[in-house]
Amino acid sequence: MAEQLLEQARDIFEGQIDFEGQKLVELLVNISLSLVGAIAFLVGYFLQDIKLAVYIGLAGTAATFLLTVPPWPIYNKNPVKWLPVAGAAPPTNIVIDEKMLR
Question: How far apart are CA 36 and CA 32, in angstroms?
Answer without folding.
Answer: 6
